[in-house]
Specification:
The chain is about 60% helix and about 0% strand. It is mostly helical and about 80 residues long.
């Protein structure tokens, strides 16, 4: 297996079950741990945007939501008529 070093890790039964539940098909436990360890928490993003940037993003999301709802209403009205 090349130059890969291996380590044994002890897990509680609960921790093992949670890890196993996150494991994807064809993925080794090492692959699963690498993937999970690389995930970012939403807390990592705190402070990334200024208040003004965050408000601009909120406004854009609200506008898109309103457009999507309006389009859905138009399509529903066409189906009802």
């Amino acid at each position: 297996m090349g130059d890969t070093e291996y380590r044994n890790v002890r897990l509680t039964k609960d921790a093992y079950q949670r890890l196993r539940a996150r494991k994807r098909e064809g993925e080794s436990f090492s692959d699963t741990i690498d993937r999970i360890a690389g995930e970012r928490s939403l807390l990592d993003l705190a402070g990334v945007l200024t208040d003004a940037e965050a408000e601009t993003m909120r406004d854009a999301i609200r506008e898109q939501t309103d457009r999507s709802r309006a389009e859905l209403d138009r399509r529903t009205d066409r189906l009802d008529s």
